[in-house]
Amino acid sequence: MMTAKEYEDSLRKLNLSAYMFGEKIENPLDHPIIRPSMNAVAKTYELAHQPEHEDLMTAVSHLSGKKINRFTHIHQSVQDLVKKTKMGRLLGAHTGCCFQRCVGMDSLNALSIVTHDIDAKHGTAYEDRFLKYLGYVQENDLTCDGAMTDPKGDRSLPPHQQPDPDMYVHVVEEKSDGILVRGAKAHQTGALNSHEIIVMPTVAMREADRDYALSFALPSDAEGITYIMGRQSCDTRKVEETLLDTGNPAFGGHEALVIFDDVFVPWDRVFMYKEYEFAGPLVEKFASYHRQSYACKSGVGDVLIGATQTISEYNGTLKASHVKDKIIEMNHLNETLFCGSLSCAAEGHKEPSGTYSVDTLLANVSKQNVTRFPYEIARLAQDVAGGLMVTLPSAADFASPETGKWLEKYYKASPDVSTDSRRRVLRLIENLTLGTAAVGYLTESMHGAGSPQAQRIMISRQVNMKEKQKLARRLCGIEA
Ligand code: SF4
Ligand code: FE
Question: Where are the domains of the chain?
Fold first, then answer.
């Protein structure tokens, strides 16, 4: 397993073609806007070496029998799934942001199931190929970006009917040694911190879409791949002289648009090629795993609740019964999120490939809560924090000899607490509910791993309505 330092050094060797603010980023790793997101992924390496976290952060590879980072592991039991949930909460709590590495783990597990199922139907050899690739990922402790979301163009049209054929990633040429692919993947979490990109389809497909039914893996710096960084609210606070106004100076997440401009993929890295009827199952498997992964939000919620309790202490409002009750409600919602992720893990089952899968219905119910509860937790945090969170002058004004003395005087609350501490915790709440981390805590909770309606469709498909009706009819005497 790599250490955090080795992970950082390994990223330095990548030659990524990445852009932000209209310019090529020569050294992404040291860019002040990207660096905090690298720090968050580095935590997944750091904690794996700490004895107190070893049980959650590491696993034994079913391929090699060696100890590996859990983020590269294929779940071999219900216990593995439960540990994955707990690992997500742990890392959310340690970073206060999206730590990005779950997407790759979820892609690897989904592919371990679906490559087996494709082979069973078509007599292909994808599973062997995939397991060799998995061995490489595990041996080198790599971070993978799981790339699912295509730009999708006109949402009313399937991939093959789009006016621009590149709106979904597709094969443009088949060669003897591999394929050339073109298209893009949007909203790619942690793309610039990844060694590998694992591409999967984003929708169920029919025969006419077969050129789009692809799954493959590429090194993140393969020729023809370009990254364009997404903006985040308050992102330029990270380039200011002092980082105090960022709220969470060390950690953050990032998303990027990833463009594949006729990129070559050798056959040994292709895991689905035109088996269109498996596009839907791969999407569903990945989505269920990733919906479970949103236990990360209960870890970030722990940070926000801690910050809210702290600001209430500093403001002197903690004894007010309505404040106490609001904090109880925040905890209730946050633990409910954790319950959902745990329950779909506890109800997991073994797939024909041997991989353990989460319960699909419960994973979707859990993620549906994630699209709502963090917003309510954030609302309550803002309620308790008060308006100063958004009217607080800048760190430069606090440092200024002319204005600093007034800010120190008038923003003092509890006599036992420094104005500096009060300011820091307010900035953290601002970061989590309005700033860069709100991308992960709020909007990503809404749309990541599928927007709310996607889960509602799955819930309607998964519930056994006939059985429920039978139960009701039996009790009221309609049927014997
Ligand atoms: Fe992982 Fe959560 Fe970020 Fe998704 S949003 S990549 S589950 S930390
Ligand atoms: Fe996500």
Answer: 291-476
pLDDT tens-digit map of 70-88: 999 999 999 999 999 999 9
In the structure, ligand 2 is a single-atom ion and the residues with CB under 5 Å from it are: 444, 448
Q: Catalytic site residue 102?
A: yes
State yes or no: is 189 an active-site residue.
Answer: yes
Structure tokens at 117: 């199922």
SS3 64: coil
Q: What is the mean pLDDT of residues 239-243?
A: 94
Q: State if pTM tops 0.90.
A: yes
CATH topology classification for 291-476: Butyryl-CoA Dehydrogenase, subunit A; domain 3 (1.20.140)
Q: Is 344 a catalytic residue?
A: no
CB of 440 shorter than 6 A to ligand 1:
yes
Give the mean pLDDT of the chain. Answer: 97
Which residue's alpha carbon is at the smallest distance from atom 8 of ligand 1? 98
293 lines ligand 1 (CB under 6 A): yes
Residue range 263-283: average pLDDT?
Answer: 98
